Amino acid sequence: MTSVLLAIAVLTLLCLASGALLGYAAVRLRVNGDPVAEQINALLPQTQCGQCGYAGCRPYAQAIADGDAINKCPPGGAATITAIAELLDVEPLALDAAEEPPPRVAYIREPECIGCTKCIQACPVDAIVGAARQMHTVIADECTGCDLCLEPCPVDCIEMRDLPPDIGQWKWPLPSAGLIASDREQAA
């Protein structure tokens, strides 16, 4: 009987020591957040525009980590989809839209601006500058084209304009097949 009680006491102490060790390890070695979601979030454009159907880039990153589609971010476009696909080692998908929208920026028609600052408060990337009761303007290099400044404007003085392609996006036009054939005939 005493050997049974001794065995129970030893097992109880062993369980308590193991539980304490596991509890300490859980607190000490805890991972804050989802590391995959953090990596995905770092690849997203951080516009917080909600065009993906989520409240911002962080919730969308968590949804992707949980298995949602990687092709719902119009501001990120094909480059972001490709980067996320490489990170997750999956096949890249086409953007979940009719076509990838051209890069756009907000433009404030300054004579119509009343200086209400509602657009400044709505901008997630601080691309709009101005003061109360003064004209506002958009820093085009900072604007992500998220459209969040349009709705709060009480005088509708903000419009979205397509950016013209810059030197990095420009491509030589391909010649038509007829021109190539006539060039070969002339060379012969």
UniProtKB/TrEMBL annotation:
Cofactor note: Binds 3 [4Fe-4S] clusters.
Keywords, ordered alphabetically: 4Fe-4S, Cell inner membrane, Cell membrane, Electron transport, Iron, Iron-sulfur, Membrane, Metal-binding, Repeat, Translocase, Transport
Source organism superkingdom: Bacteria
Compartments where found: Cell inner membrane
Region span, Hydrophobic: 1-26
All copies of domain 4Fe-4S ferredoxin-type, residue ranges: 104-133, 134-163
Cofactor(s) the protein requires to work: [4Fe-4S] cluster
Keyword Lipid metabolism recorded: no
Principal subcellular localisation of the protein: membrane
UniProt-listed Pfam families: Fer4_21 (PF14697), FeS (PF04060)
Binding site for [4Fe-4S] cluster 3: 123, 143, 146, 149
SUPFAM superfamilies associated with the record: 4Fe-4S ferredoxins
HAMAP family for the chain: RsxB_RnfB
Family the UniProt entry places it in: Belongs to the 4Fe4S bacterial-type ferredoxin family. RnfB subfamily.
Family annotation (NCBIfam families): PRK05113.1 (NF003475), rnfB (TIGR01944)
PANTHER family given in the database record: ION-TRANSLOCATING OXIDOREDUCTASE COMPLEX SUBUNIT B (PTHR42859:SF3), OXIDOREDUCTASE (PTHR42859)
Protein name as catalogued: Ion-translocating oxidoreductase complex subunit B
Species, as recorded: Pseudomonas triclosanedens
Organism taxonomic ancestry: Bacteria, Pseudomonadati, Pseudomonadota, Gammaproteobacteria, Pseudomonadales
Primary gene name: rsxB
